[in-house]
Amino acid sequence: MTDILPGVRETAVSRADTQRRPLPTATERVVPLRHPGRWIATVAVLVVVAQLVHGFATNEFFQWGRFAYWFARPTILHGLLITLEVTALSAVLGLIGGLVLALMRSSQNPVLRAVSWAYIWFFRSIPLIVLLLILFNFGALYESLSLGVPFGPSFLTVPSSTFSNAMVIAVVGISLTEAAFAAEVVRAGFLAVDHGQHEAAAALGLPRRYQLRRIVLPQALRSIVPAYVNQLIGLVKATSLVYYVSLLDVFGVVATTSATFSGDIVPLLLVATAWYVILTSVISVVQFYVERHYAKGATR
């Protein structure tokens, strides 16, 4: 008689035991696996959070009454409107510029690739506050801007003072920087699409515009959306720098009001913090739904 291997014998015995074991009745309760470490970590985190909340709520230095007074004052809301305008205009112009630069960077033309690379390298290297201050003093560097033949006649000349508006300076400065970062985000999204997708679409004879709109772009957006929304959140916070070019956004209003009401510096700073948290939270919620839309068919 042939001997049965030990592993096979154990499996057979276990199967036999399982068959003989009575099934659990309806009154028997399944006890879940205990995780004491998880409970200890949860309690520790809750204790720390409770301490932080208690510290914020009971510390009179924060002056929550003054915070409630300033939170929705008309001057604060006007500054918030400026912040939203600068953010919206810079986001749109920066994204358009980023798309153009990404296409130039992916072009077969070496001149376009070189210009795009130089733009991205230059504007990613300059701190935004430095760029805004340069644009703020642009009128001292150039009295006018001309469009024409290099070293030849000019067809159109515009005084630099035309662009000396604080809103224009803020939007142009932030958009120039935003386009450089957005270009890399968009380019990374297109590179994330497997090259086989392009080849399969071409093998099917699909037009290039259809390939881009229905095959490449939906897959690229899965990579572009999270990175670009992260960039947008940074853009919202970067708008606080426009205060240095004499544009009073929500932070600028808080800074100037604090100079007048020196006893309310902390509650005013908390007001600015609260509004920035609200704005970034709204963007995060929109990101969640956009990501869920483009993740259809990719996640299970």
UniProtKB/TrEMBL annotation:
One of its GO terms (biological process) is amino acid transport. The chain crosses the membrane at residues 39-57, 77-104, 116-142, 162-181, 241-262, 268-290. Residues 80-287 form the ABC transmembrane type-1 domain. It is a multi-pass membrane protein. The keyword Transcription regulation does not apply. One of its GO terms (molecular function) is transmembrane transporter activity. Its main location: membrane. InterPro entries: AA_ABC_transptr_permease_3TM, ArtM/GltK/GlnP/TcyL/YhdX-like, MetI-like, MetI-like_sf. Keywords: Amino-acid transport, Cell membrane, Membrane, Transmembrane, Transmembrane helix, Transport. It is found in: Cell membrane. GO terms for cellular component: ATP-binding cassette (ABC) transporter complex. Belongs to the binding-protein-dependent transport system permease family. This is Polar amino acid transport system permease protein.
